């Protein structure tokens, strides 16, 4: 093979993610920061980026043990647990798999709900692993109905259902399921099923309490409310789930909790840990601690209320159809059949250098999603909604321009 004449790329020629060089077709925007308003990955605060940029250290030395023990301790309140939390080098999908393979056996029955795209993917995974999934159909506009949980479990007199799988915040629809009511339904049916909850786009943004709500495995990851880049997956584990793990026979190796929990006791990992992301996680946890979780949740609630005020003010529809289930992390906006939501997103990217979430699966082209979670303040939201309003107008969608005013009123209040 001939050696290449191409000069190696020096760092200065690599597009900077905070500028527009690699984004948009019209090339009209040349300065300022990109607005990353998808519902994850979210914007990473500079403090966290700087923490990640520290030198990587020996993962078998005492400095690493100090870091890991600190992070494993500080992460617990974010899950609302005093029990163990395993932190994998993985995406959220890996943490989904870990929750299933550590607690279940081939042929086990599980109850799951079609709340949207991610609930459907988790169902697919469970089936692929050899579980039998009772998948309750849904319209992608509602969360899990606790009455249906109660009904299905009451009908399962043989206690064949080993676990109930719930996506707390369905990122594809902006609908948040009511986990305490689901727990109460399981208890009312006096059913022993485990409760497995995906908090991938709610943790650190929407109130969540693993212990108080009696959740057995809480699944999460780094790139949403925790304001980190992708790369960390989490399982918070109840005592009941730990006991179930003793008898769980689904094959596992990388995801096995047992060697993790043993090594974590001393601040170590059973394999090479994601050291630099753990630096970032420590910084993120300090940021959340200093704001205080109740204030973090209240901030997200306010921004979600302002976003809904804008959408309703524009005369458009929010996809979530139940007042009790509006997501505080993102809002999915439903367009009528004549208008293509992807075209609106493209115009906004080209003209205003802002990325919005696409409609996924069944709602592809019908919705766009505004992420308002993570490192986000009033003016980030005001800028985001201004960009959306201008994009809608440029796309020729008839809207009431007072929408933005309605949002600003909520922010000012
Ligand atoms: C609710 C939910 N579950 C699971 C996933 C999958 O996570 P990942 O893409 O990190 O594997 C996502 C991703 O956005 C999600 O939003």
TrEMBL record:
Q: Which InterPro entries match?
A: Aminotrans_V_dom, PyrdxlP-dep_Trfase, PyrdxlP-dep_Trfase_major, PyrdxlP-dep_Trfase_small, SP_NH2Trfase/AEP_transaminase
Positions contributing to substrate binding: 369
Q: Which UniProt keywords apply?
A: Pyridoxal phosphate, Pyruvate
Which Pfam family, any one of them, does this sequence belong to? Aminotran_5
Q: Which residues form the Aminotransferase class V domain?
A: 59-344
* GO MF annotation terms: alanine-glyoxylate transaminase activity; L-serine-pyruvate transaminase activity
Query: Which PANTHER family does this entry report, sorted A to Z?
Result: ALANINE--GLYOXYLATE AMINOTRANSFERASE, AMINOTRANSFERASE CLASS V
What function does this protein fulfil? Soluble hydrogenase catalyzes both production and consumption of hydrogen from suitable artificial electron donors or acceptors. This subunit catalyzes the tritium-exchange activity.
The record's family statement is: Belongs to the class-V pyridoxal-phosphate-dependent aminotransferase family.
Q: Tell me the protein's name.
A: Tritium exchange subunit
**The organism of origin for this protein:** Saccharopolyspora antimicrobica
